[in-house]
Amino acid sequence: MSVTERFNEVQKRVNEACLRAGRDPKEVTILAVSKTKPAEDIRELLAAGHRDFGENYVQELSEKAALIPEARFHMIGHLQRNKVRQTLGAAVLIHSVDSLRLAEEISKESVKKGQVTDILLEINGGNEESKFGYDFSEAEDAAVAVSSLPGVHLCGLMCVAPFVDDPEKNRPIFRKMFQLAVDIGNKNYDNIDMNVLSMGMTSDFEVAVEEGATIVRIGTAIFGERNYGRS
Length: 231
Ligand SMILES: *Cc1c(COP(=O)(O)O)cnc(C)c1O
What we know:
This protein is α/β, with parallel strands linked by helices. The protein has a single domain, classed as TIM Barrel (Alpha-Beta Barrel). The chain has helices at residues 3-21, 39-47, 58-67, 84-88, 100-113, 139-147, 171-186, 205-210, 220-223; strands at residues 29-33, 52-55, 72-75, 93-97, 117-124, 152-160, 192-198, 215-218. Strands 7-6-5-4-3-2-1-8 form an 8-stranded parallel sheet. Helix 4 (84-88) links the parallel strand 3 (72-75) and strand 4. The longest helix is centred in the N-terminal third of the chain and has 19 residues, at 3-21. The protein is globular. The relative contact order is 0.16. The chain binds pyridoxal-5'-phosphate (PLP).
């Protein structure tokens, strides 16, 4: 199957999950996670009308953004403060803000550039392998702290759930994420929107959509397995 056919298959599964949950498929953006994959794959999807792509590594992100300016790239991988400046021009949304110091650096560099950068706070959804992200209990305080920074706009939350064989195992995490976003959103803090919920990957995106995801980050189901050795 071509990349476009695989993408259409994912779109169909997202639509069906929306139908089951009584949601409008237009509320859900499929972020095609193109890390380690060649520019041709991205161009193929662009030609089919798809715009949003996710990258994990700053070097690769900035190279691809320069090469393919028509695409909208999102930064979804762990971001170090010394790579913030390079990221700002290349990414339309930074999903992986996991500390106040990182948010402060993004704000500082954004102010220098005369822009306000859209960010999400990364919540640790109980992934043993990933030590990144705020605990659920820390999220609201972190959101409030970040909201006072002049160069960032907090748009919502992101989480990387554990890799599971049965996607149902992650349903409670996605449900908790949705509730957390609703709870923070209901407080109507200045400079905090909770409209974006980035959760769900190849192994569990349908469950994430049923529980309220507005962005699902899909790599393998669209581009096939990644080969890190030869990227
Ligand atoms: C690689 C990656 C994805 C995509 O993973 P697949 O299982 O291939 O869909 C999504 N989110 C993050 C943060 C990733 O690093």
